[in-house]
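debug: dumping io for the single-chain case to check the tokenizer round-trip. Nothing else runs in this session.
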Amino acid sequence: MSRIIWKGAITFGLVNIPVVLKPASRSQTLDLDLLDARDMAPVGYQRINKSTGKPIPKEHIVKGYQYEKDEYVVLSDEDFRQANVEATQTVDIVSFVQADDIPPYYFDTPYYLEPDKRGERGYALLRETMRRTGRAALALVVLRNRQHLAAMLVDDNALVLNTMRFADEVLPISELKLPKASSGKATGAHAREIEMAVKLIEDMSEEWAPEQYRDTYRDDLMARIEQKIESGQTHELTPAAEEEEAPRKSAKVIDMVALLKQSLDTRGKRGGRDKSSEPQEEDAPRKTARRAPARKHAPAKRAAGSRASAKRPSHPSGGKSTSASRTTARRKQA
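debug: decoded output
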């Protein structure tokens, strides 16, 4: 079971709901260590004093805020806690908004909220009220010495707290160079293209099932690691492959309708085609005909080679007499 990383309460109005905060995600990235390629010794991570160049023990490292050049105010863990004791112990709901109104790029890290002792009734009340109104709660919470804006959402029977980015942390979309919505310009989407794209999207639509998607890159990398272990290549480096510069392709006009139609046809052949109408009986002889000569070619080539060698003269003079007779015949014709 996931660990408890925070204990406090949800507050809105005069309501106080004791809760605990638990992680809702985990990292599946491979834990790789840095090694010295010469002797495979681990490369450690050291905190170095920039003045002396010597490593510093962890217990001697403190956090400081530079308020002037080379002048610092040192802050301890107790300073962070006492800055706002109430803020570090509450998920303070400040407003409710429509869940669909929150742009996705504001979301950051998800957490689960679980009712603590004597918090079940208030937890259920808040959850069912939010479910009925379709609202998300916007709250302020302090985690790991930093205040976060957070969105509280209902998922099944749980309240999920998703930390968010503040508005000044999100870069404005207006800085992007985007195609206009009008279809009159070359960069816009035309009605025919939209119609075909809608059909393709509908054809590719399915129920939400996240378990069917996997980090295939991680799986392939683990398979390569296991292959190296099995073959005994535990201390060998794989040489870098030589990359050839890809030839530059000239720009060409893209027919979006043709590409969309091709995509629909391809998907239809994969899943929607009626197999009973396929000429299966005609396909079998073709596959056999392609494979059959491969078995006959090898001996045929050997036989042709043996016949050619039988016709060749056993001594070099045969080649000269043949060329001489051809020369004489040409002179007579002349």
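debug: round-trip ok. DSSP finds seven helices and nine strands in the chain.
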